[in-house]
Amino acid sequence: MKENNNYAVICHEVTKKFRSDTFKGVRNIFKRPVYFAAVNEVSFEVKYGEIFGIIGPNGSGKSTIIRMLATLLLPDHGYLKVFGMDVTKNTYEVRSLINRVSVDASFFKKLSVKENLAYAARIYGVPVSKAFDKAKVMLKNFGLDPKKMYSPVEDLSRGQQQMVSIARSFLSSPNLLLLDEPTTGLDPKSKKMVQEFILSVKNDHNTSIILTSHDMIEIEKLCERTAFLKDGKIWACGTSNELKKKTGKDNLEDVFLEVTGEEFPEDEEE
Ligand SMILES: Nc1ncnc2c1ncn2[C@@H]1O[C@H](COP(=O)(O)OP(=O)(O)OP(=O)(O)O)[C@@H](O)[C@H]1O
Ligand SMILES: [Mg+2]
């Protein structure tokens, strides 16, 4: 690690702009490209060993932040640091310390679960037999039939694929786990197993975790602090109790409805 730092993650005044398909409500047919800020001067820090939540309505910028931390997108302004290393300058070092689970997990769909895990293990430099042992235990805990190890991934349900994706993400014992809606599409029992797994990863390995979710009960249960994004900006960041106090609501779902219930603001496109 290049520099001693008190935080696992620092996101400092980060802005990410994408080209917009619309301009002032109509289709953008102008030659000059128009951009909008999907993430707009966002700042937050994640402590070592913390589970940090990011919530917000669809399109509020959660996955864009995760993708920037995962070195898959470059920020336009500001900087992101993972264990003191800038994600744009120390890309390879950062990649060796993180892993990401996204709701649209990618696999070699024609290959079996086992073959996909073997591929991941080789990339992470983990002995394949050790990786299989580890994955088998995790998948058994998630309730996945061991025979599925030999099925092509495309024959697994979305929830089952999600479980494999979570098991795969932990083969390399990452120091920072980026979980983008990891439990979306899971049945209640599998969801509970995955939530328990996330807590055990934090407690047993002191892994720092960033979790996005639309399940407010999950966020309350797992996250020590949460950033609430709205239109690419942080509306508030704090413990669930602090977010509830800010709105005078009893639970995070009501907080969510209160904050997102307003009319959409005018487009602020340049
Ligand atoms: N590659 C891209 N090109 C253009 N626009 C994009 C791109 N990726 C995301 N966006 C836009 O950026 C905004 C934020 O998207 P993002 O995926 O970060 O939202 P999100 O909060 O993760 O939403 P959800 O809850 O639906 O997953 C959206 O308006 C989206 O359309
Ligand atoms: Mg998303």
Description of the structure:
The protein has a domain at 7-103 and 181-260: 3-Layer(aba) Sandwich (Rossmann fold). Helices cover 35% and strands 26% of the residues. It is built from nine helices and twelve strands. The chain has helices spanning 62-69, 91-97, 113-124, 128-141, 158-169, 188-205, 216-222, 240-247, 252-260; strands spanning 7-19, 22-23, 26-27, 35-47, 51-55, 77-82, 85-86, 98-101, 176-180, 208-212, 225-230, 233-238. The chain has a six-stranded mixed sheet with strand order 8-9-10-5-11-12, sandwiched between helices. A four-stranded antiparallel sheet has the order 4-1-6-7, with helices on one face. α8 packs across α9. The model has no long low-confidence stretch (mean pLDDT 90). The protein binds adenosine-5'-triphosphate (ATP) and magnesium ion. Residues 18, 38, 56, 58-64 line the site of adenosine-5'-triphosphate (ATP).
